[in-house]
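Worked example 3 (structure in, sequence out).
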């Protein structure tokens, strides 16, 4: 997992949509690794509407229409989408 590989300094905020990330096991893991959890309130879909909309557009308009050969090509294409087309 990323925490083990990167060993981050300071507190890291983990944003999630609740689901399995609200479990006791996950919360214990986060506390043990100095990760702060950030979740919207149950049933409040508007808390994260802007981010949800962006990622939905990214997936629908870009990612699902392509097959990437490398991570670097994937990153470059997503960067292009965000910086050139989306903004």
């Amino acid at each position: 997992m990323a925490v083990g590989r990167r060993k981050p300094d300071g507190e890291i905020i983990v944003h999630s949509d609740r689901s399995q990330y609200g479990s006791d096991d996950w919360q214990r893991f986060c506390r043990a690794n100095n990760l702060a959890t950030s979740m919207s309130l149950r049933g409040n879909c508007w808390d994260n509407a802007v981010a949800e909309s962006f990622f939905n557009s990214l997936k629908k308009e870009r990612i699902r229409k392509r097959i990437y050969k490398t991570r670097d090509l994937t990153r470059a294409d997503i960067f292009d989408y965000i910086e050139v087309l989306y903004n």
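Notes: The mean pLDDT is 80. The longest helix spans residues 71-86.
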